[in-house]
Amino acid sequence: MANSGRLLSCTNPPKDFIAFWQCVGDPELYHRGVEPITVFVLAGGRSSRMGVDKAFLELGGKPLIARAVQLARGVTPDVRIVGDPEKYAPYAPAVSDRFVGRGPLGGIHAALTASSSDLSLILAVDLPFLDERFLSYLIAQAAVSGATVTVPSTDGYFQPLCAAYRRQFADVAEQALEAGRNKIDALFRSVRLRIIPEEELKGNGFSMSMFRNLNTPEEWGAAKREFPRG
User: pTM for this structure?
Assistant: First the structure.
């Protein structure tokens, strides 16, 4: 790769996104050149509040699952879905939960145990406002920090379903799941963590609204008005 010398020489990218871009030329090329990454979309299932399977809700004439896969392929060609392989085969290769019915933590465990890379990006299917630039920034920060989990934090809360995890987190998740514990955030105390705080996000021009998810018909209706059919 023509830029590989430049990319690999930037071993401590700045937290300022503009300086970061100048350092590596293209964050997508940076994380691809430094460390492989697999992206897993957590498809979920039937939402109690939405009343339907959110993955197949359409925005702008495209199902959320298709949007999420397309976004993920902007940062790596290795994109997979955590969900029913038969149901999601038209969109990307899929893996099933080993701990069925245990929520997102079960999905993260399934992803990390199936991943072809040490570092994996986990994305919820219902985050249609995510910024691809941010995903590149998140992955690059995870790659250079070496943290077990690299996670953004907004309004005092973690965003664990838009975060980067190393394979070793699967062991932590498995122990919790076997003990009947499903909460993701509670496990962060026991691992090396790289938090991307709200101040850093805002300082680099990222909008907190990109973490809006769709849990109710009202939220879906509002989102549809922002995604006119193409």
Answer: 0.85
Q: Read off the pLDDT of residues 127-168 as tens digits, 9 standing for 90 and up.
A: 999 999 999 999 999 999 999 999 999 999 999 999 999 999
pLDDT tens digits for range 178-228: 999 999 999 999 999 999 999 999 999 999 999 998 888 888 888 888 887
Euclidean distance between CA atoms 73 and 60, whole angstroms: 19
| Nearest C-alpha neighbor of 104 from the set 56, 57, 156, 169 | 169
* Domain edges within the chain: 26-225
- Among candidate residues 128, 127, 147, the one with its CA nearest the CA of residue 196: 147
Taking alpha carbons only, the member of 172, 216, 164 closest to residue 191 is 172
Q: What are the Cα distances from residue 51, in Å, to 46, 56, 77, 214?
A: 7, 12, 32, 12
Cβ atoms 148, 192 nearer than 8 A: yes
The domain at 26-225 falls in which architecture? Alpha-Beta Complex (3.90)
